[in-house]
Amino acid sequence: MYYPKSQIKTNLIANLGEFVLLDTKEPYQGPYWKTSSGQFFTGKNPNNTPVFELIPNPNLSTEIDYRFEGELNTTYSNLKQITQNDIPSIPVYYLNVPTSKDYDLGSYVRYFCKKANQNIYLEIEKETYDKLVNQDTSILFSNYVPFNLTWTIVGDSSEAVAEINKSLVYLKERNLKLTGLSQYFKNYSQFYQVG
User: Fold this and answer.
1) CA dihedral 151, 154, 160, 165 (to 10 degrees)
2) In whole angstroms, what is the distance from residue 122 CA to residue 54 CA?
3) In the predicted structure, residue 95 carries a pLDDT above the cut 80
4) Residue 161: predicted pLDDT
5) 3-state secondary structure 104-153
6) Are residues 156 and 195 in contact, defined by beta-carbon separation less than 8 angstroms?
């Protein structure tokens, strides 16, 4: 894979627990590099193989801003009167956890987005979802496809709940042509409670 030097930041070090491998969700520690579009990969640079994609650890705070530090060229930004706040943000992982009211209802809505040009999925908070849907210029909306899922959390058995959620995911995958969505989920009975 090739990236222009201006589009990547190399030789970064991940502390244990800061990132997990996208495919296996195993914690990652060691060298990594990132792209200006907000993707992270193992190794010191794109030439270190094999390269695996990383995502921020979902168990850490979602307040971390992974944009390039000092992304803006100072001279250019001064001439154009651009500030760091003018740079559109990218969606950040957020685990939507059900509330007691959701358990009373038996289900709740989870929010996601997919990279427009790749089969990369990310759970996001409702505020981010709304910004993507409304094409808010404070976020890179054109790079992502937002969608939501109704997630069943109460039932007679975890197997029954898992089957319902799995069916809804496959239906969403087919109707919206979201290739690979079903592989994103490792536990279709996540947050299950006996009804």
Assistant:
1) 0
2) 12
3) yes
4) 94
5) HHCEEEEEEEEECCCCCEEEECHHHHHHHHCCCCCECHHHEEEEEEEEEC
6) yes
- 163 or 137: which carries more pLDDT confidence? 163
Q: Rounded CA gap, 172 and 109, in Å?
A: 13
Cross-strand pairs, 122: 113
Provide the percentage of residues in the chain whose pLDDT is more than 70. 84
Give the strand order in the sheet containing 107-115: 121-124, 107-115, 144-152
pTM, 2 dp: 0.58
pLDDT over threshold 90, residue 71? no
Tokens 């589009």 correspond to 7
- 27 has pLDDT over 90: no
CA distance 195 to 188: 16
Close Cβ partners of 59 (under 8 Å, ≥ 6 residues apart): 17
